[in-house]
Fold each of these.
Amino acid sequence: MTNASRPTRRHLLSGAAATAAFAVAAPYIATRAHAQGDPKVIRFYTQDGTLGDLYMEHWYRPFVEMHDLRAEYIPLQGGNAPMEKLQAQIAAGRPEADVIPLHGNQLVFALRNDMLMPVPRDAVPEYANLHEQYITDWGPGMVLWCYGLAYNTEKVTPAPTSWKALWDPQWAGRVAINEALKDQALQMVNIAFKGQPYPVDEETFAHLTALRPNLVTLWSSGADAEQLFRNDEIVMTPFWNGRVTRLKGEGLPIAFAVPDEGFFVRHSTYAIPKGSRNPEMAMKWLDFVLGVEPQKRLVEFGYGTPNKLVTYTPEEEAAVIVTDAAVVAKAVEEDFARILDETPQWNDMWTAWKAG
Amino acid sequence: MSPDRHPRAEAPDAAPPVRAWARIGRLRAWGLVLPAGVLYAVTFGIPLAMLLGASFARFQGGVTTPGFFLDNYVKIATDGVTLAVFRNTVSLSLLITAVGLACALPVAMLMRRAGPGLRLVAMFVLVSPLLTSIIVRNVAWMLILGRSGMINSWLIDAGLISAPLPLMYNRLGVVIAVVHVYLPFAVLPIYAALRAIDPARERAAASLGAAPWRVFVHVTLPLAAPGLIAAFTLLFILSMGLYLTPVILGGNFVVTLPMMITDAARNQYNWPYASAMSVLLLASIVAVVAVSAVLGRLFAVPRDA
């Protein structure tokens, strides 16, 4: 070994510095390269299951083929946009998706944290055919669904007409409520006993404690609740209409009831994140997906549409529910800013209740 | 080339050649671990520092304000919920660890005495739960433990019970499902410790008149202590991170700290509070590892034992 090839302290230190510099710089270089927009690429969130298949078949692929695009699909876990991740990505200038579906409280959160770009009305001509309440400055509201009572038609007779049916002592250990969207469960308790969704307080939890003997579990996802019905673990739960339609299709004796005290109708706002790499194409996609054909496919699946031109068969009307103005009038008016603000306190009370 | 033939070593004012080479050798050794060190610093150290920093931020009205605020730690200490859930997590972890060790010890002893064929079968059976997805495993347990599941159906058909037993959506269901999958993490260290015991020691105790249980308590168990401590540590640490099984088989009524962390981050978007709870969880795990290390030294079996 010669002097020239023998490693010295200087060699080792400079090698270490180069390695460290590369390690520190690599994420930045990769991020900037990744952030470069390509007008022929669009990024969508996708879901598992049959609803995910529907989106893929009728909402994404036809649009991608129509515009000769390349699509990148990002799996969405649990059907919720990952706000924590998105916030960090938007701050770094590179959100992973070009369109994001947002629940009501997520929209409030996104606006407070300056995460969205405006969607001008003239960029989405299909807005002309929409019910006005589903148009926002940040994108359209779509995928309308309801939260009412799902029940086993063979065991729960007559059909329940009130949320209070959950408290009936004959259903001890045969009822469940949802942990997944616990704000809905809490508002449901209030609607049942106070006639209004707020405030969530000690009285709300006293009613939940009274429900405890009937509760077998708190389900975490729609799929969990479906399984509870299939396994005959429960006879009744507050649930989403789309899931009930699916279970009916499997031949289960199940029906969806709209309680007299009121029920919940929600939708997702499809928004474009700041820093989107292809906002023009994202807006074109919004216009495409609001059209009659893509919306009709969703109606066939059991979800409501904001498009006034979509027609329903009698079976679809029964499944979608929100097509009937008299039923829609029973929908509870939710305050999503309040839900976002008070969720920490509600969660503390909820955790104390269920762990107690 | 030997160190004393090094040209620089011939210079009259040079450092003694052996010391110089030793220093270079040390630097080389550090150089070898440097890439791994940098990797860890980037992928573990920096995120950990960010987590710690985030835990001091303030979250109000859906907006996070960076800074040095103690709000989240004050909340943990005073809200009465977080510490209760933390205690619940620790007690659940201790229960799982105790049941796991109680199940693992006989299995490890059986494997020690078994022939190679049976040992291989036992190893496969033990490890097989790890080859299955956690969701599939938990759903399978639902089919076994459920109201209309296998166990309740058998018991009702046999006329032993008239109504289904509550085997899941409680702690029992969680403990059964978790011990099932974590058992190899307990069996393998205990088995390794048992294998390292010289059978002559047990035979010597027996030949001196000790009953089998006395040999086990006074000879086998102390010599297997390092394996037991390792198994305890692994089971406890893994159990402290439980999330999905309590959600599915605990029916959300068995609340753990990771469930609260997930809820704070995913549903409340309150990452500062989620970070503070993560720091609490991490600190408790570090404390257990430290205690385990001390116990490991105390109960270390001498090499010549």
Amino acid sequence: MITYLSNNGDTVLAALRQHIWLALVPVLLGFVIALPIGWLGVRFPWLYHPLVNVAGVLYSIPSLALFVFLPVLLGTKILSPLNIVVALTIYTVALLARTVADGLRAVDPLIVQAASAMGYRRFKRLTDVELPVALPVILAGLRSATVANISLVSVGALIGVGGLGQLFTRGFQLFYLEPIFVGIILSVLLAAAADGIIVLIQRALTPWTRA
Amino acid sequence: MITFDDVVKVYPGGSTAVDHLSLELPTGKTTVFVGPSGCGKTTSLRMINRMVHPTSGRVLIDGQDVAGQDEALLRRGIGYVIQHAGLFPHRTVLDNVATVPMLTGKTRREARTAALGLLERVGLSEEFAKRYPAQLSGGQQQRVGVARALAADPPVMLMDEPFSAVDPVVREGLHKEFLRLQEDLGKTIAMVTHDIDEAIKLGDVVAIFRQGGVLAQMGTPQELLDHPADDFVAEFVGRDRGFRGLSFDSAADLPVRELTPDLVLDDKGRPEGWRVDGGIKALGGTFTTADSLRQVTDLAIISPVGIAVRVDESGAADGLVRHHDLADHLAARRGRSA
């Protein structure tokens, strides 16, 4: 494995870099899109169930099908990394919109009421009270989405863009185990590192949950 | 002054929560809304800060209809305390208290300095400032809730069952604190409770509501106890309202007897117990001229010899009251008032 790495260091590093990029950009995009959607599901309670259902359906689309279908829909090239980014953003939104809605719904109504009674306007109440109180739930969702994305990126290798997944396809084609091991180990390490970083962010932002 | 002018609240389902309510809450006094659940007391309270909008009629603060005012600005000028305090779990105690001043544009520094002073005011030391609400007991949370409501120094305070989530001993302490604070501050307070004892203890004026949002009677606690308007009020203020009414009679003009040798005193004349059958039994407590007849009656009942002991400011015993002295005193009082 060491010899494989020393001979293919550049390829592996490029694959890792692409993997990080393909996994994390959708997490950020998805988070930003999911916040207002999740909020709408709370602001207008009749929207909540349709939202949960649509999110469930989107999340159940097989990733490979989405990767293949998106170029048709978006008019992108089949080999464009954009397909992966859009597909994973859709999954992230599906996962996080529901999490945001659930997190906001779980905020004690008494606290929301107290905030209103003290003279918070709706938007400031959301940013200053409801979102911070819902943050532990939302960040837990973000962890799942991040780890899921890191593992899903590899599937993209089947359509030619897949970060570390390319090491799996290569190993498979060549009947050669080393790149597969390297790919698995790096994927797991990457997922653990990303998860750890979110946990650290969570600790910094929500000291009160350990009170 | 807060005025309810023929206020009606009918909910979409058609149920009437408040039925043609007209009443006035005097400035600088505590008015308590009390009644069984479903009597519209909380709904009425919430119309003052526009958390609930009346179906018809008006609510006015110092002559200004609240309906015409910006909700957020109106609320920043009205303190609000609720059951379980409703503190923000993600903010420290200090920042919870600083909430409204920060909303009204004070700097964080100013708001925190003021908040620190308020914590002291409600009996919490500086060490609580950096804690989170989850680290406080129920009683401490409720104190923070009161401090938070007072932070912007609002002339009006709304308190919705503020003391009902804490145990009786803590509640007793909070009641005392509340009365002391209100004596200093003289806010116009509207409070909701389902507990008639609390209403009588804390209210300058008590408004008793009945089911369906109808005002049954409004008056000072003593008026309600002495002259209930109807059976509902009489029932609600309770069977022992005669005994409870004694809370308003001072023990100052109660005649006392001289001390007897059965009362054991220490070297400074302070009572220690009663000599009974060769042993010494505990007193159960003492009273001063500042206490009420209710206290004296209670002491006479629990005393091992049926005698309540009066003490002076130094704690030295200076008189005794027997059961029948109390009965005579009350009979004489009835004679006078009749």
